Known about the structure:
Layout: H1 7-13, H2 28-31, E1 33-36, E2 42-47, E3 53-60, H3 74-81, H4 94-115, H5 122-140, H6 147-154, E4 158-164, E5 169-176, H7 180-193, H8 199-215, H9 218-230, H10 244-249, H11 252-262, E6 268-274, H12 278-289, E7 312-318, E8 323-330, H13 336-349, H14 355-363, E9 367-375, E10 382-390, H15 396-412, H16 417-435, H17 438-451, H18 461-467, H19 470-480, E11 486-493
Parallel strand pairs: 2-6, 7-11
Antiparallel strand pairs: 1-2, 3-5, 3-6, 4-5, 8-10, 8-11, 9-10
Helix pairs in contact: 3-11, 4-5, 7-12, 13-19, 14-15, 15-19
Amino acid sequence: MLIRSMGRLLAALLLLSAGVPSLQAATLAQKVQEHTFANGLKLLVVERPGAPIFSAYLTVGVGAVHETSGERGVAHLLEHLRFKGTETIGTTDHRQERPLLEAIEQTGSALDRLRNEQDAAPERVAALEQRLADLQKRHRQLVVKDEFARIYARNGGVGYNAFTSKDLTSYIVSLPANKLELWASLEADRMRNTVLREFYTEREVVKEERRRSYDSDADGLLYEALLATAFTVHPYRHPTIGWPSDIANLSPTVTRSFMERYYSPVNTVIALVGAVDFEQAVALVESYFGSIPAGTPVPEVIVIEPPQRGEKRVTVEFDAEPRLAVAFHKPTLPERDDYVFDIIDQILSQGRTSRLYRALVVEQQLATSVATYGAPGYRYPNLFVISAVPRHPHASAEVEAALYAELQRLAKEPVSEQELERVRNRLRVDRLRYLQNNSGLARMLTFNQSVSGDWRYLVDYDAQIASITAEDIMRAAATYLVPGNRTVATLQKKGP
């Protein structure tokens, strides 16, 4: 599942206090138990003895931001391929399929090289395409489709899924409490023995996903253009799914190398939340994951986006109704101004009483919808994005002008204590909603451990939010929400 933007969700997930019923006995800092194994794998456990179920998040701290030229799109493609199985799962006979996989890889690589030749003879291309199709047809006889999913489903598993973002990749499932060892055995097998089965078939699936989600989607096109314009050098500018030419040239060799380097214990954090015993969890994870080699730590991205020196604008033409997106560069966690923007996000667009909704949608009726969110990732300085869809017959320029008027007001007029308290209350409601389920807490823990390096970022979040003042909001708005720091992307209908 491709994640385009997780801003509002993660803003909610980052909130916690000790007053939640399931955590009344102790603060989060006391409830989370952790263990780091010799190979670098990090385990976080929260015991919730109640319903006999648990949620598991296995998060690898590698995403699209870590890809280099020639690898772009590989993290997302790997998410697909790692559902295909291992040497014992997803096949009727791995020894029999191994030579077929090698022949498929050789033929597919030769076909890719030939397609990249400017004067390639069509008959040679057609011959290789036919050979690849024949090999894939033979191989399909040995494939057991969706075996991981069926095993989990037969054992009471729900919510089995995965997602790739700019910063990380997560594999998730919830299971009955007595299936912890099953989970450990399956996920350790996936980490150790993934087979890149049906590579070229799945690459075509990703190509179609890209056409559907970006090339043929107005919002996708606009978002992609916004990022590519806002970022000049930082890899956040590239789509998680990859550009079309990136996907078309991904090879099994490049994909396998990326996986073997980074999808390993040293880059992985596991969160188990629910009816789980900590000591038993440590023993099982040690038994199944402990002998897996540590792997290569994911390198930090050393590219730093230079300060923006003036407004940037880009226009996208597409057969759809107009829409608008405005992005401002800002710091990320754990900088104090990142907390301030969580408040700003709530003030501007969360709920029917928010400022932009009230001004643009209700009072002036310039837009049919308006939203704000953080994008595209959280590991490195990112963007605060405001998007809106103009209401006919109003143009994007009218919406843009009204939007800027609200931002100027935010920079010049102190937010009342009443409005601030209303925002804090709304954040508390979001917090409670996510903390009521095991999966939400597991997601929070792995996200913060992977992105900020320490899940304890959660512990004092409420106190940080409570300390933000009206002056902080005015200062942040006057510093970041300014013309020289903004990128404006507009989508206009193609044609006269």
